[in-house]
């Protein structure tokens, strides 16, 4: 069972991430990704889906045309865990 991050651990994890916003009430981090069109947004989602399956950790997300909104939170821990930070890093790498 994965543990929720302490305040210090969370702050350290977030320092290494750009563009992710911490929602304290939800115990989650959010980021919105914009693309040229739906095809590019969906191609990105396909790659994120594969990374999520590989990690055994899955985003809460939505898509509207060229925009993909991703929320990461560890349901099993009731908040943010190291798995969310790791998946956020993997998602950011997909963009490079
Ligand atoms: C059994 C399975 O590994 C768990 O239910 C995993 C799957 N993906 C998950 N994803 C997220 N975001 N939070 C979880 O707690 C979680 N749990």
- The CATH class, by name, is Alpha Beta
Shape: globular
Strand residue percentage = 15-25%
Low-confidence parts lasting 5 or more residues at pLDDT below 50? none
Gyration radius, in Å: 13 Å
Q: Tell me the series of helices and strands, N- to C-terminal.
A: HEEHEEH
- What ligand molecules are bound, each kind once? the ligand C[C@H](O)[C@H](O)[C@H]1CNC2=NC(N)=NC(=O)C2=N1
Kindly report the spatial arrangement of strands forming the biggest sheet.
1-2-4-3
Q: Tell me the total number of β-strands.
A: 4
- Number of helical regions: 3
CATH architecture: 2-Layer Sandwich
The pLDDT mean sits at: 97
**Total domain modules:** 1
Structural class: alpha+beta
